[in-house]
Amino acid sequence: MSASSGTAAQDTTQEVNFDGLVGTTHNYAGLAQGNIASSRHEGLISNPREAALQGLAKMKALHDAGYAQGVLPPQQRPDIEALRRLGFVGNAERVLTQAAHEAPQILRAVCSASSMWTANAATITPSTDAADGRVHFTPANLQSSYHRSLEPETTGRILQAIFANEHYFAHHQALPTTPVFSDEGAANHTRLCGRYGAPGMHLYAYGRRAFGGGPAPQRYPARQTLEASQAVARQHGVDNGQLVFAQQHPEAIDAGVFHNDVIAVGNGPVLLYHERAFLDEEGTIDALRDKLATVSGEPLIPVRVPEEAVSLEDAVSTYLFNSQLLSNPDGNMTLVVPGECQENESVWHALHSLLLDGPNPIGEVVVRDVKQSMRNGGGPACLRLRVVLNEAERDALSGRVLLDDALYEELVAWVNRHYRDRLALEDLGDPLLLRESLTALDELTGIMRLGALYPFQRG
Ligand code: SUG
């Protein structure tokens, strides 16, 4: 495994994957409707330390292979301010113990470590594709679920702290928090291109239209609306010629594909997808082919996985498509898949026969164990937010957020110092857990040089 920044010698643009550090309260609360793994594992004892170390090990492996790797800090959980907003009063410990007694379901939600899945943190447009030549950020409102709707405010603050230089970076408010503009961020957005530094094509996948009706899933919620995707593209000033909006197959959502990144992944000119990812497969692929050719001169390389090779059910249980597809200097690509793919015979076979031996640039498969996250429906691709940056933009980053050996060692030691290796739902109301979490976060902002990020640090 080894990485590249593109083929043109003068192009310094790279994709930087910003992974979310798993928080101290990582647990299995069964909070996410339509996410089969989350429902299936409700009540399981979690291991926050192992979860955080698995995430860091993935980051380190990609860093060692030469890919640019970033880190995003977790959010403050338990979210005491969220409980106060719901009428719990007194000091933090009282608020916590009262919630544990009176509203254990709400307590679960305000303890979720769901900010680890940074593919849902925001949608990003690289400077090459934005009208004003800056990198644009819109935090996802995540309004489909209460526990995730607690994230956008802090997400915005974290992104603004890291991408602070206004000359290079532009930040937007999250879309209005209402079902019409339901937005789950980059998990439903894929940029296709030739070189990273050349203009690209933006595929926005949505689950339903808010206005005008049309097909929609029957069983599970569609978490992204067309109207939300259009608004984000408009905020970022992306030209119409660079946009394709495609509806997810409602049957896929009803089979547990709650985000498009559970059923498709793209990188460069390659789109790896399951035949039931999109409602109109042919129309979507044709539109992508035409627009990519016009925008970049690059032929689209669709890699289609048919139902007969991998069923929707296997795609959802193994997260084959929730892989990271990464570019290498020799023009080949590496696919980073979760361990579950290796455990499923038909998926493992398809990986070799269709992908590795097929007519496409995927030349290597790397298996990573992120089981603690997978049990909540978060694979390798959920754990990272892709930000395409040129050299000047990378130099303009604030804080210590690009992984190197020293930062990795410090973060591993920090996890080992502060994280529990066992957490049951009954432990969430433990005032000690709150104290441990705040101590850990306070130390983390020091390690990452991010200043006072969290409400408890701001008074
Ligand atoms: O929003 N799970 C997350 C998983 C997000 C995965 N992200 C991407 N596909 N990009 C969700 O469904 C479960 C939390 C719990 O049940 O404890 C949860 O929120």
Secondary structure topology:
Blueprint: E1 14-20, H1 36-40, H2 48-64, E2 69-72, H3 80-85, H4 92-102, H5 104-111, E3 122-125, E4 135-139, H6 146-149, H7 152-162, E5 169-171, E6 189-192, E7 201-206, H8 226-236, E8 243-247, H9 250-254, E9 264-267, E10 270-274, H10 281-296, E11 301-305, H11 312-318, E12 324-327, E13 333-338, H12 345-356, E14 362-368, H13 371-374, E15 384-389, H14 391-395, H15 405-418, H16 431-447, H17 455-458
Parallel strand pairs: 1-2, 4-5, 7-8, 10-11, 13-14
Antiparallel strand pairs: 1-15, 3-4, 6-7, 9-10, 12-13
Helix pairs in contact: 2-15, 4-5, 15-16
The structure holds N~2~-(3-carboxypropanoyl)-L-arginine.
N~2~-(3-carboxypropanoyl)-L-arginine (SUG) binds next to loops.
How would you describe the overall organization of this protein?
The protein has 459 residues and is of the alpha/beta class. It has one domain: L-arginine/glycine Amidinotransferase, Chain A, CATH 3.75.10. Helices cover 34% and strands 16% of the residues. The chain has 17 helices and 15 strands. It has helices spanning 36-40, 48-64, 80-85, 92-102, 104-111, 146-149, 152-162, 226-236, 250-254, 281-296, 312-318, 345-356, 371-374, 391-395, 405-418, 431-447, 455-458, and strands at residues 14-20, 69-72, 122-125, 135-139, 169-171, 189-192, 201-206, 243-247, 264-267, 270-274, 301-305, 324-327, 333-338, 362-368, 384-389. The strands form five sheets. The protein has a three-stranded mixed beta sheet. α2 runs antiparallel to α15 (405-418), α4 (92-102) packs across α5 and α15 runs antiparallel to α16. The longest helix has 17 residues, at 48-64. It starts with 13 loop residues before the first strand and ends with a helix. The model has no long low-confidence stretch (mean pLDDT 96). The structure holds N~2~-(3-carboxypropanoyl)-L-arginine. N~2~-(3-carboxypropanoyl)-L-arginine binds at residues 28-32, 35, 38, 112, 114, 117, 119-120, 148, 187, 258-259, 261-262, 376-378, 382.
